[in-house]
Design brief:
single chain, mainly alpha, Arc Repressor Mutant, subunit A, 2 domains, two-stranded antiparallel sheet, 2 strands, 72% helix
Length: 184
Amino acid sequence: MLIVGRFWEVASLADWKQGLTTLVRLRGAELKRYAYLLCGDAGDAEDLVQDALVRTFTFARRAEVTQLEQYVRKVMLNLWVDRTRRRRVWRRLMPLAATSAHQDAHEHSDLAQALRRLSARQRACVVLHYYVDLPVSEIATQLDISVGSVKRHLHDARSRLAEQLGVDPDPDPERWEGGRAAAR
C-alpha cells in the first residue's frame, strides 16, 4: 500500500497503474495537443507531457480520469511557464545561446511564429481561453493571477497576434469585451 498526498488516502499500486494507463490511453493525444500549443514544438510537447505525468504520478492517486487530466494539465502549464522564465533568464545571461538553428527549423507557420513571440503568460492565457475554452475566471484560477490580469494578457496577446498576422484585431467587439466568461 502507498500513502497518497496530504489526505493520507491509501491506494494500491494497481490503482495507481490503472489510473495512469487509463489517462494516457483515453486522453494522451489531447494532452500532447495541449502541450504542443503551449510549446510550439512537438519534441518539447512530448517532454512536457512526460514530465507532468511523472510529477502527477510520483504519488499514487485515486481519482477519475477527468480529475487526473485536469491535474496533469495544471502541472503542464506550471512547468511550461517555469521553463519559459528560466529560458528567458538564460538568454539574457548567455546572448550567444539565444538563437538556435533548431528553433528556426521549427518555425513552419505564421501562427506558430506569432505565438512564440508572446510572453509566457499571454500565450498561456490564449491557449487556455481559445483552445481549452476556459472562461476568464478559470484561467485566473489556473494561473493564480487576477481576472483583470487575464483580460489584459488576452487583450495584449490579441493585439500582438493581429499585428504579426496582419488581421483585424477586433472583428467582433462584443465577443472580446466580455470574453467567454460573459457568455457563461
